[in-house]
């Protein structure tokens, strides 16, 4: 089994944490200053701590695993699985930026600050799984009977070669 990882950048993690925690921090501050309600402050503080742990686990869940039977890409809360029997060939091309992917609709995913995770639709209504954080960006197209034939992936050239070798077997 071949495994590779592609973590989000520190900037992406910081901005996502800011978007999540800034509103809750304001609520926490308002509870402390307005009513001096310790129980409310403890509840909001515990919620902030819990969300921080959840965000950490979401942002650290990223991997590409290649076995003889299937390709599995895990990214944040989403997982893409492609059985070897569902595909005949793969073509890969490097993309300069996530804007060049041609994504038009987010169907079930997260997008922000160059971080894309989940299911999207491209121009032409093609279903695409995105696992984009930082580093080289690739668009893989699979031929065969798979439900999703497009994979946008942040990965090293070695990982892409491993996927291409797997597809040729």
Automatic annotation (TrEMBL):
This is Bacterial Pleckstrin homology domain-containing protein. Keywords: Membrane, Transmembrane, Transmembrane helix. It comes from Pseudoduganella guangdongensis. It comes from the Bacteria. The chain crosses the membrane at residues 12-32, 39-59.
């Amino acid at each position: 089994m071949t495994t590779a990882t592609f973590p989000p950048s520190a900037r992406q993690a910081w901005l996502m944490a800011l978007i999540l925690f800034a509103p809750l921090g304001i609520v926490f501050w308002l509870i402390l200053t307005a009513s001096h309600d310790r129980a409310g402050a403890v509840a909001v503080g515990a919620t902030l701590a819990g969300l921080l742990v959840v965000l950490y686990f979401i942002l650290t869940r990223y991997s590409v695993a290649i076995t003889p039977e299937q390709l599995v890409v895990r990214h944040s809360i989403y997982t893409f699985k492609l059985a070897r029997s569902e595909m005949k060939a793969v073509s890969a091309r490097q993309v300069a930026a996530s804007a060049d992917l041609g994504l038009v609709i987010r169907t079930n995913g997260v997008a922000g600050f160059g971080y894309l995770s989940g299911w999207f639709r491209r121009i032409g209504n093609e279903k695409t799984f995105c696992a984009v954080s930082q580093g080289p960006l690739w668009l893989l197209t699979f031929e065969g009977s798979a439900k999703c034939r497009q994979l946008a992936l942040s990965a090293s050239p070695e990982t892409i070669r491993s996927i291409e070798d797997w597809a040729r077997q």
